[in-house]
Specification:
alpha/beta, D-Maltodextrin-Binding Protein, domain 2, three-stranded parallel sheet, 15% strand
């Protein structure tokens, strides 16, 4: 586990200091509550509120290596974190102008709907009910990680299939699609089990380690990440089964096209940059020398695409220079711990595909 193993010590220190769902501030000078007040007071888009505040308030999970975790120095890293940084760079010209707020599964939507955070970048699954919940509806930006739900058990348990879990107990985080999928799959299979529910992902994993349940279900990416921090990872296996589709990505509130479009096109820009071969190291050089008309539009060398979004023309130059393209983000944070698979570019057999920057 090349990337996550290095984070184990830092993560254990962080968990002791931060707990499950508290607020942790990186470069914060503004609280989440004030962020909500600003958006309400202006009566405009969340984009305007972020620009006026000079800081992005981003809801993350905070305890999942590879996606969002906190080092011993208090710094945040991970794929989800880099999405926050890319948005801040595109909107404010500064990838460090981010306040991160750790949110558990039951807090995240309340915080978003109440304006306490500007966006979620927190392993959140795109579903119809979340996308179309009336006045509480949310907007899902492009998927940044195509995942699936899995099941972890002890290697010496003899369990090889979900059917083998008849009569056993399963740890699950409540308030998640994971909880709903577990019920659906086990009902379909006719498997009787006992669910042991927890509000926080760390608590769920710890309960499994303490033997309070026989299995632990979550997104496969989370299971891999948490197993990498176990003292004896080889004593636990993830079954060769996918219990659901889990498209994970950033989330904003509904009825705010300006802000949603901003987050959406920044994510698409990171994907398109990889397809064009634009990297963190060469973006400035390419912007100053390219003859490719499509690249000129992406990087704001020509056209007014940034202006149409309410941003600077070179908003994607700022984002790419801050975090790199999607492939660089993936390699830096996840590496070979999880093969890219569906998260490859469409040109490589995956699902990562950007509409045209035109």
């Amino acid at each position: 586990m090349r990337k996550w193993g290095l984070l184990a010590a830092a993560l254990s220190l962080t968990l002791a200091a931060c707990g499950g769902g508290g607020t942790t501030t990186g470069t914060a000078t503004t609280t989440g509550g004030e962020g909500g007040t600003t958006a309400t007071a202006t009566g405009g888009s969340r984009l305007n509120a972020v620009q006026q505040r000079g800081q992005l308030i981003c809801g993350v999970e905070g305890t999942i290596p590879g996606f969002s975790s906190i080092g011993s120095d208090g710094s945040y890293t991970g794929l989800d974190v880099d999405v926050c940084r890319a948005v801040a760079a595109a909107v404010l010209g500064d990838p460090e102008a981010v306040e991160y707020r750790n949110l558990d599964s039951t807090e995240r939507f309340t915080a978003l709907r109440g304006g306490e955070v500007d966006m979620l970048s927190r392993n959140t699954t795109w579903t119809l009910s979340r996308d179309a919940a009336g006045g509480n509806a949310m907007e899902f930006a492009p998927t940044t990680f195509f995942d699936a739900q899995g099941m972890m058990v002890r290697a010496d348990s003899g369990v090889q299939t979900l059917e083998d879990m008849e009569g056993q107990s399963i740890c699950v985080e409540t308030g998640t699609t994971t909880e709903l999928n577990l019920t659906s799959r086990m009902t379909e299979l006719g498997v009787t089990y006992t669910d042991v529910k927890f509000q926080d992902g760390n608590e769920t994993a710890q309960a499994y380690l303490e033997g309070r349940c026989d299995g632990f279900t979550s997104d496969k990416s989370q299971l891999n990440a948490r197993r990498s921090n176990f003292s004896n990872p080889d004593e636990h296996i993830i079954l060769d089964v996918s219990m659901s589709k889990e498209p994970l990505g950033p989330v904003t509130m509904n009825n705010d096209s300006a802000w949603y479009d901003t987050v959406k096109w920044v994510v698409y820009g990171l994907i398109q940059a990889e397809e064009f071969g634009i990297t963190q190291a060469n973006v400035q050089q390419i912007a100053g020398s390219t003859d490719n008309a499509d690249i000129k539009l992406l990087l704001g060398v020509e056209g007014d695409l940034g202006t149409q979004l309410g941003l600077q023309p070179d908003f994607m130059v700022n984002a790419i220079e801050a975090v790199g393209n999607y492939g660089e983000i993936y390699d830096r944070n996840i590496g070979d711990d999880i093969p890219r698979g569906l998260n490859q570019l469409w040109t490589e057999g995956g699902l990562m595909y950007s509409p045209p920057f035109r």
